[in-house]
């Protein structure tokens, strides 16, 4: 029983290390051929949005909204996939509650 508890504590420590590492990694999503870029970290936290002046048309903000939304969604999807991949390395693909993810 003590061995099992030690393994669980080790897994929790490795998960915390993984989540900390994910927070330092930045992923990019783009839209409009790269005129809008969104950056999120591996914990799916928005870090920045960059908009090229070519994407700004004062008469057409709807397109800009669409481009920003698309870039953010793309970057969040990339972060989710990275997070799933990295946490699966720790958990062996099992969804274990209480490990901080």
Describe this structure in words.
By secondary structure, this protein is α+β, with helices and mostly antiparallel strands. The chain is 53% helix and 18% strand. Strands 1-2-3 form a three-stranded antiparallel beta sheet. A hairpin with a 4-residue loop joins strand 1 (26-31) and strand 2.
State the shape. Answer: rod-shaped
Average of the residue pLDDT scores: 90
Beta strands, count? 3
Which structural class best describes the helix and strand composition? alpha+beta
Number of helices: 2
List the secondary-structure elements in sequence, H or E. HEEEH
Helical percentage = 40-55%
Low-confidence region ranges: none
Taking all Cα atoms into account, the compactness measure Rg is 18 Å
Taken as a percent bin, the fraction of beta residues is 15-25%
Distance between the termini: 24 Å
Strand order of the largest sheet: 1-2-3
Q: Outline the biggest β-sheet.
A: 3 strands, antiparallel
What are the SSEs and their pairings?
Layout: H1 2-24, E1 26-31, E2 36-41, E3 46-51, H2 61-91
Antiparallel strand pairs: 1-2, 2-3
